[in-house]
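Posting this for the archive.
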Amino acid sequence: MQRKQPSVFQKIKRGLTVGSVITGNSIINGTPVLALGLTKLIKQSKQIDEKNIEFANKWLSVNNWLIDKILPQTKWDIRIEEDLNLQLDGRYLMLCNHQSWVDTTVNQYFGRTRMPLTRFFTKWELIFIPVVGQAFKILGFPMMKRHTKSQIAKNPALKHRDMEEARKSCEQLLSQPFTLLNYVEGTRLTPQKQKQQKSPYKHLLKPKAGGIALALNILGEKVDALVDMTIVYPEGVPEYSEFWLGDVPKVMVHMRKVEIPTWILEGNYEEDRQFRAQFAQWLNKIWKEKDEIIEQLKQDHEKK
Protein backbone atom coordinates (compact mmCIF):
# COMPACT_ATOMS: atom_id res chain seq x y z
CA MET A 1 0.00 0.00 0.00
CA GLN A 2 1.50 3.32 -1.06
CA ARG A 3 1.88 5.91 1.64
CA LYS A 4 -0.20 9.06 1.12
CA GLN A 5 2.05 12.07 0.63
CA PRO A 6 1.17 15.31 2.49
CA SER A 7 0.12 18.25 0.34
CA VAL A 8 2.24 21.39 -0.08
CA PHE A 9 -0.14 23.26 2.23
CA GLN A 10 0.17 20.56 4.90
CA LYS A 11 3.97 20.73 4.67
CA ILE A 12 3.99 24.51 5.02
CA LYS A 13 1.63 24.30 8.01
CA ARG A 14 3.74 21.57 9.59
CA GLY A 15 6.97 23.48 8.97
CA LEU A 16 5.61 26.66 10.60
CA THR A 17 4.34 24.67 13.59
CA VAL A 18 7.63 22.85 14.06
CA GLY A 19 9.69 26.02 13.69
CA SER A 20 7.54 27.92 16.17
CA VAL A 21 7.50 25.17 18.81
CA ILE A 22 11.24 24.42 18.57
CA THR A 23 12.16 28.11 18.69
CA GLY A 24 9.84 28.82 21.61
CA ASN A 25 11.00 25.71 23.45
CA SER A 26 14.65 26.67 22.98
CA ILE A 27 13.99 30.11 24.45
CA ILE A 28 11.83 28.90 27.36
CA ASN A 29 14.07 26.03 28.46
CA GLY A 30 17.39 27.09 26.94
CA THR A 31 17.54 30.57 28.48
CA PRO A 32 17.47 29.27 32.09
CA VAL A 33 20.32 26.89 31.22
CA LEU A 34 22.38 29.87 30.02
CA ALA A 35 21.46 32.00 33.04
CA LEU A 36 22.31 29.27 35.53
CA GLY A 37 25.45 28.45 33.57
CA LEU A 38 26.78 31.96 34.07
CA THR A 39 26.65 31.47 37.84
CA LYS A 40 29.19 28.64 37.44
CA LEU A 41 31.75 31.27 36.50
CA ILE A 42 31.54 32.40 40.12
CA LYS A 43 31.00 29.11 41.92
CA GLN A 44 30.64 25.45 40.94
CA SER A 45 27.43 23.92 42.29
CA LYS A 46 26.02 20.41 42.05
CA GLN A 47 22.53 21.82 42.64
CA ILE A 48 22.87 24.15 39.65
CA ASP A 49 24.15 21.29 37.49
CA GLU A 50 21.12 19.20 38.46
CA LYS A 51 18.76 22.10 37.72
CA ASN A 52 20.36 22.59 34.32
CA ILE A 53 19.84 18.92 33.50
CA GLU A 54 16.22 19.25 34.59
CA PHE A 55 15.71 22.14 32.15
CA ALA A 56 17.56 20.23 29.40
CA ASN A 57 15.30 17.20 29.88
CA LYS A 58 12.22 19.43 29.69
CA TRP A 59 13.68 20.89 26.49
CA LEU A 60 14.01 17.42 24.97
CA SER A 61 10.63 16.25 26.26
CA VAL A 62 8.83 19.05 24.41
CA ASN A 63 10.66 18.18 21.19
CA ASN A 64 9.75 14.50 21.65
CA TRP A 65 6.12 15.43 22.34
CA LEU A 66 6.18 17.36 19.07
CA ILE A 67 7.46 14.29 17.21
CA ASP A 68 4.61 12.17 18.61
CA LYS A 69 1.96 14.76 17.80
CA ILE A 70 3.07 15.98 14.39
CA LEU A 71 4.71 12.82 13.00
CA PRO A 72 2.34 10.00 14.04
CA GLN A 73 2.83 8.28 10.68
CA THR A 74 6.54 7.73 11.31
CA LYS A 75 7.03 4.14 12.45
CA TRP A 76 9.68 3.33 15.06
CA ASP A 77 11.26 -0.12 15.09
CA ILE A 78 13.33 -0.21 18.31
CA ARG A 79 15.24 -3.36 19.26
CA ILE A 80 17.14 -3.67 22.55
CA GLU A 81 19.11 -6.84 23.21
CA GLU A 82 18.18 -8.65 26.44
CA ASP A 83 21.51 -8.20 28.23
CA LEU A 84 21.34 -4.41 27.93
CA ASN A 85 19.58 -2.99 30.99
CA LEU A 86 19.18 0.77 30.56
CA GLN A 87 18.37 3.02 33.52
CA LEU A 88 17.78 6.76 33.86
CA ASP A 89 20.32 6.90 36.69
CA GLY A 90 22.99 4.91 34.85
CA ARG A 91 26.35 5.87 33.38
CA TYR A 92 26.92 4.93 29.77
CA LEU A 93 29.38 5.35 26.94
CA MET A 94 27.69 4.98 23.58
CA LEU A 95 28.89 4.40 20.01
CA CYS A 96 26.69 5.24 17.04
CA ASN A 97 26.84 5.38 13.25
CA HIS A 98 26.31 8.82 11.73
CA GLN A 99 24.34 9.59 8.56
CA SER A 100 22.34 12.77 9.15
CA TRP A 101 21.59 15.54 11.64
CA VAL A 102 18.43 13.51 12.27
CA ASP A 103 20.60 10.97 14.14
CA THR A 104 20.84 13.26 17.15
CA THR A 105 17.07 13.80 17.20
CA VAL A 106 16.54 10.03 17.02
CA ASN A 107 19.02 9.54 19.86
CA GLN A 108 17.20 12.08 22.02
CA TYR A 109 13.80 10.64 21.19
CA PHE A 110 14.94 7.13 22.05
CA GLY A 111 17.01 8.02 25.11
CA ARG A 112 14.89 10.58 26.95
CA THR A 113 12.81 7.98 28.83
CA ARG A 114 15.47 5.25 28.94
CA MET A 115 18.87 6.84 29.66
CA PRO A 116 20.44 9.89 31.31
CA LEU A 117 20.87 13.09 29.30
CA THR A 118 23.04 12.35 26.26
CA ARG A 119 26.08 14.47 25.56
CA PHE A 120 28.23 13.92 22.51
CA PHE A 121 31.61 14.96 21.20
CA THR A 122 30.95 17.96 18.99
CA LYS A 123 32.76 20.65 17.00
CA TRP A 124 33.82 23.80 18.83
CA GLU A 125 32.25 25.90 16.06
CA LEU A 126 28.76 24.88 17.25
CA ILE A 127 29.21 27.12 20.28
CA PHE A 128 28.33 30.06 18.02
CA ILE A 129 24.79 28.77 17.41
CA PRO A 130 22.57 31.05 19.56
CA VAL A 131 21.32 29.41 22.79
CA VAL A 132 21.93 25.83 21.62
CA GLY A 133 25.70 26.15 21.23
CA GLN A 134 26.21 27.82 24.58
CA ALA A 135 23.91 25.26 26.24
CA PHE A 136 26.10 22.47 24.85
CA LYS A 137 29.10 23.98 26.60
CA ILE A 138 27.32 24.58 29.90
CA LEU A 139 25.82 21.07 29.94
CA GLY A 140 29.25 19.49 29.54
CA PHE A 141 29.36 18.44 25.89
CA PRO A 142 33.02 17.75 24.98
CA MET A 143 33.72 20.38 22.30
CA MET A 144 36.65 19.68 20.01
CA LYS A 145 38.67 22.14 17.94
CA ARG A 146 40.03 20.50 14.81
CA HIS A 147 43.47 21.79 13.97
CA THR A 148 45.12 21.29 10.61
CA LYS A 149 48.50 19.64 10.21
CA SER A 150 50.03 23.00 9.31
CA GLN A 151 48.63 24.62 12.47
CA ILE A 152 50.02 21.80 14.61
CA ALA A 153 53.38 22.07 12.84
CA LYS A 154 53.54 25.76 13.78
CA ASN A 155 52.34 25.11 17.33
CA PRO A 156 52.82 21.46 18.48
CA ALA A 157 51.00 22.19 21.75
CA LEU A 158 47.72 22.24 19.80
CA LYS A 159 47.99 18.47 19.32
CA HIS A 160 47.29 17.81 22.99
CA ARG A 161 45.12 20.82 23.86
CA ASP A 162 41.93 19.28 22.46
CA MET A 163 42.52 16.07 24.37
CA GLU A 164 42.99 17.96 27.62
CA GLU A 165 39.74 19.87 27.10
CA ALA A 166 37.91 16.62 26.30
CA ARG A 167 39.47 14.99 29.35
CA LYS A 168 38.18 17.79 31.62
CA SER A 169 34.69 17.50 30.11
CA CYS A 170 34.65 13.73 30.65
CA GLU A 171 35.83 14.03 34.25
CA GLN A 172 33.13 16.60 35.03
CA LEU A 173 30.45 14.08 34.02
CA LEU A 174 31.37 11.77 36.89
CA SER A 175 29.38 13.80 39.42
CA GLN A 176 26.07 12.70 37.86
CA PRO A 177 24.35 10.04 35.71
CA PHE A 178 25.33 10.48 32.06
CA THR A 179 25.33 9.11 28.55
CA LEU A 180 28.36 10.13 26.50
CA LEU A 181 27.86 9.50 22.78
CA ASN A 182 30.66 9.23 20.24
CA TYR A 183 30.03 9.27 16.50
CA VAL A 184 33.28 7.42 15.91
CA GLU A 185 33.21 7.83 12.12
CA GLY A 186 33.95 11.51 12.77
CA THR A 187 31.63 12.75 10.03
CA ARG A 188 28.36 11.91 8.33
CA LEU A 189 28.31 8.98 5.90
CA THR A 190 28.05 9.75 2.19
CA PRO A 191 28.84 7.53 -0.81
CA GLN A 192 31.57 10.00 -1.80
CA LYS A 193 33.30 9.81 1.59
CA GLN A 194 32.97 6.03 1.57
CA LYS A 195 34.65 5.83 -1.83
CA GLN A 196 37.35 8.32 -0.88
CA GLN A 197 38.17 6.35 2.28
CA LYS A 198 38.03 3.00 0.50
CA SER A 199 35.95 1.88 3.45
CA PRO A 200 35.83 -1.90 3.92
CA TYR A 201 32.27 -1.61 5.21
CA LYS A 202 29.09 -1.70 3.12
CA HIS A 203 27.10 0.73 5.25
CA LEU A 204 29.74 2.61 7.30
CA LEU A 205 32.82 4.77 7.19
CA LYS A 206 36.01 3.71 8.95
CA PRO A 207 35.86 4.31 12.74
CA LYS A 208 38.23 6.78 14.37
CA ALA A 209 39.56 5.52 17.67
CA GLY A 210 40.94 8.59 19.46
CA GLY A 211 37.78 9.96 21.08
CA ILE A 212 36.35 6.69 22.35
CA ALA A 213 39.81 5.57 23.53
CA LEU A 214 40.10 8.74 25.60
CA ALA A 215 36.59 8.30 27.03
CA LEU A 216 37.26 4.68 27.96
CA ASN A 217 40.57 5.64 29.56
CA ILE A 218 38.89 8.22 31.80
CA LEU A 219 35.46 6.69 32.36
CA GLY A 220 35.77 2.99 31.49
CA GLU A 221 35.91 1.60 35.03
CA LYS A 222 33.08 3.88 36.14
CA VAL A 223 30.45 3.19 33.48
CA ASP A 224 27.62 0.67 33.69
CA ALA A 225 27.91 -0.29 30.03
CA LEU A 226 29.43 0.48 26.66
CA VAL A 227 26.40 0.71 24.38
CA ASP A 228 26.42 0.26 20.61
CA MET A 229 23.52 2.11 18.97
CA THR A 230 22.73 1.51 15.30
CA ILE A 231 20.32 3.76 13.38
CA VAL A 232 18.86 2.78 10.02
CA TYR A 233 16.56 4.78 7.73
CA PRO A 234 15.41 1.90 5.51
CA GLU A 235 13.83 4.10 2.86
CA GLY A 236 16.75 6.52 2.51
CA VAL A 237 18.82 8.83 4.71
CA PRO A 238 16.81 12.01 5.33
CA GLU A 239 17.75 15.66 5.62
CA TYR A 240 16.78 17.34 8.90
CA SER A 241 13.92 19.27 7.28
CA GLU A 242 12.58 16.09 5.64
CA PHE A 243 12.23 14.42 9.03
CA TRP A 244 10.18 17.25 10.50
CA LEU A 245 8.04 17.57 7.36
CA GLY A 246 6.97 13.94 7.72
CA ASP A 247 8.98 12.48 4.85
CA VAL A 248 10.59 9.70 6.94
CA PRO A 249 8.20 6.73 7.02
CA LYS A 250 10.32 4.53 9.27
CA VAL A 251 13.25 4.68 11.69
CA MET A 252 14.98 1.52 12.94
CA VAL A 253 17.13 1.50 16.09
CA HIS A 254 19.18 -1.42 17.41
CA MET A 255 20.87 -1.35 20.83
CA ARG A 256 23.37 -3.82 22.25
CA LYS A 257 25.89 -4.03 25.06
CA VAL A 258 29.59 -4.32 24.18
CA GLU A 259 31.93 -5.87 26.73
CA ILE A 260 34.97 -3.74 27.64
CA PRO A 261 38.10 -5.92 27.82
CA THR A 262 40.33 -5.42 30.86
CA TRP A 263 43.35 -4.64 28.68
CA ILE A 264 41.60 -1.54 27.32
CA LEU A 265 41.28 -0.07 30.81
CA GLU A 266 44.98 -0.65 31.46
CA GLY A 267 46.41 0.74 28.19
CA ASN A 268 47.72 4.13 27.06
CA TYR A 269 46.35 5.05 23.65
CA GLU A 270 48.36 8.24 23.25
CA GLU A 271 51.79 6.82 24.09
CA ASP A 272 51.69 3.09 23.29
CA ARG A 273 51.82 2.26 19.56
CA GLN A 274 51.10 -1.44 20.10
CA PHE A 275 48.08 -0.62 22.24
CA ARG A 276 46.78 1.74 19.52
CA ALA A 277 47.00 -1.03 16.95
CA GLN A 278 45.24 -3.52 19.24
CA PHE A 279 42.55 -0.96 20.10
CA ALA A 280 41.94 -0.23 16.41
CA GLN A 281 41.55 -3.96 15.75
CA TRP A 282 39.01 -4.26 18.59
CA LEU A 283 37.02 -1.25 17.32
CA ASN A 284 37.08 -2.51 13.73
CA LYS A 285 35.56 -5.79 14.94
CA ILE A 286 32.70 -3.87 16.57
CA TRP A 287 32.23 -1.92 13.35
CA LYS A 288 32.15 -5.09 11.24
CA GLU A 289 29.42 -6.46 13.50
CA LYS A 290 27.53 -3.15 13.21
CA ASP A 291 27.75 -3.36 9.41
CA GLU A 292 26.16 -6.81 9.61
CA ILE A 293 23.43 -5.50 11.94
CA ILE A 294 22.57 -2.74 9.46
CA GLU A 295 22.37 -5.26 6.62
CA GLN A 296 20.05 -7.48 8.71
CA LEU A 297 17.79 -4.55 9.65
CA LYS A 298 17.48 -3.56 5.99
CA GLN A 299 16.63 -7.14 5.05
CA ASP A 300 14.02 -7.34 7.81
CA HIS A 301 12.41 -4.17 6.48
CA GLU A 302 12.27 -5.55 2.93
CA LYS A 303 10.49 -8.69 4.15
CA LYS A 304 7.60 -6.71 5.62
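The mean pLDDT is 86. The radius of gyration is 20 Å.
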